[in-house]
Amino acid sequence: MSNSAPSRPYPLGFSTVDGRSNFAVYSETADSVDVCTFDESGAETRTRLEHRTGHVFHGFVDELQVGSRYGLRADGPWDPERGLRHNVNKLLLDPHATAIEGQYAWSQSVFGHDMNEPERRDDTDSAGSVPLSVVADPSFDWGDDVSPRVPLDKTVVYEVHVKGFTQLHPEVPEEIRGTYAGLAHPAAIKHLVDLGVTSVELLPVQQFVQDSHLEEKGLRNYWGYNSIGFFAPHGDYAAAGDGGGQVAEFKELVKALHAAGLEVILDVVYNHTAEGNHLGPTLSFKGIDNAAYYRLVEGDESHYFDTTGTGNSVNVGHPAALGLIMDSLRYWVSEMHVDGFRFDLATTLTRQGGDAELHSAFLTLIQQDPVLAPVKMIAEPWDTAGYQVGGFPADWSEWNGKFRDDARDYWNGSDATLGTTAQRILGSPDVYEASRRSPLSSVNFITAHDGFTLADLTAYNDKHNAANGEDNQDGESDNRSANGGAEGPTEDEAVNERRARKRRNLLATLLLSAGVPMILGGDELGRTQGGNNNAYCQDNEISWFDWEAVDTELLEFTRTLLSLRAEHPALRPVWFRQAPDTGADDTVDVLRSDARGFDDADWENPDARSIAFVFSHVGADSFALLLNAAENAVEFTVPEAPHGTWELALSSDDEQRVSDPVTTLMVKEGSFTLLRSPAER
After folding, report:
1. Domain 574-677 has CATH 3.30.390.50
2. How far is residue 197's CA from residue 200's CA, in Å, rounded to a whole number?
3. Closest CA to 227 of 142, 344, 329
4. I need a surface site. Which of 39, 136, 238, 523 has the fewest CB within 10 A?
5. Which tens digit of pLDDT belongs to each residue from 17-53?
């Protein structure tokens, strides 16, 4: 009798047991699962997983070693009407693969069904037309790496694309531009540190699929919201290539950013996968256990329940799908050392049975998990079926779409916006206070990857998406653009001056409001996409940062704003309580331009465009923020300085001057002024 250890059903995917290569995969409906390894010539060797514990197939696969290329074949019933889509002729990616090599060659072979008769199984073998999973080397010298663990009140998020940030950067060596190594280069990190952000939020870096319909147009999926590998760093972003070296290269990036004091937050897409609907390809989950991983339409299991707009939704009501997500999250924290996650269409992940639920299994599992408890959790709190801002747990932060909309409306001079603007600047208490959540629940933003850049928001009336090949019909029409008087680039100095002022106004509103600010990468540089507000398929100069066309004045202005926020606690309150509650660390007065308090009639006045805030923190400098979105200059009665005197801290009006003592101050049309009252020291 052998004394060697038996194979194990956990962990799923590849692991080692007493020096042997263990493999495990979950499927309730497959009859058998083979692990298929491929040598350099492409020759395939199949190993049947002989054991089954519960619904997990497992066994030893001695051919699997570090560097091995492999796939899975799951045999079982083909019966789409019952949600069963097994097809042993389709080579499948391992759901737990930590590296993926190669691309899809779109053809009939990649589809489990006959493309002309969807209910009929297609028996063309897909090997050679699909990527392979790779056994990546897990070893890495982390040295003294430690997470910066930036407190939320000091956090400033910088949303950025790995490739676009350095693809044209003149100080980054050409051979590593657009890669994890490029982002880890000292020149790239210097920009982030000098700017003053604390947390780098990377657009999707989990392995994603290039869409066939884009490739037919000569375009590429640039943003990456088309996931297929929840554990694998996207291979195209690795200077080392996609043969497994992408794992260590990503770790080097995290290590370098941590050494500079910067956190790494991943934009993750667990709500759907690239396998699409009943007409989509069979790449992984669909062929392993379709009903376990996807929500199917009850009573019509050949079709998929879709709240993501992509054809499918991950079945978070099933333990297998939930377990996959949780394993993936823990992997990125434990093995890759990331510091947080922004969940794309997070509301879908709370829909166990259809409705969004605060106490869903997904949210409950995250809340009680000791590995995930210390990291930042940020929700995009909506999906195609509902809007859930304010509906996530107290220890989560949320993308606050109301902040974006109301700040834009205010600076566009829209009617009756003063009340909502005040709420946003105070950390949206109308959204969070009833559930006893702090302003730090709100991730404030003016722009994000999806929509206009800040420069384009202030330069264009309408979207200009012709390059996307959809006759400019894609992308939402943005009725909150603020173009400053002319469409697109102009030589009109007055128009350009108004645009520059509006960009400063919007950035100041973002960075001087309570909550967690998020800057769209490149906004500080004046980055333009030529009016394209849906550049998801533009992996080219439309999306890449143009480091030769930097708005140096805007960059310096943004640095100054971020420096003020970092240095002064009054500008980043943890909790807000209305003065004169002197027991609170953070207090605020909200005043009319005549320094009096607002009454109900003032808030309801559709023509009101000016407002003042006085922010104070015990023992620290105080600030007065004067906002004027009117088309005419407004004279503010300056409130009494908490520490005896006011000085000019910053203004979007280059001509603004402040004398001492100051009792009244003229604030130019469409501008702000920030005053500072230094505390006695």
Report:
1. no
2. 8
3. 344
4. 39
5. 999 999 999 999 999 999 999 999 999 999 999 999 9
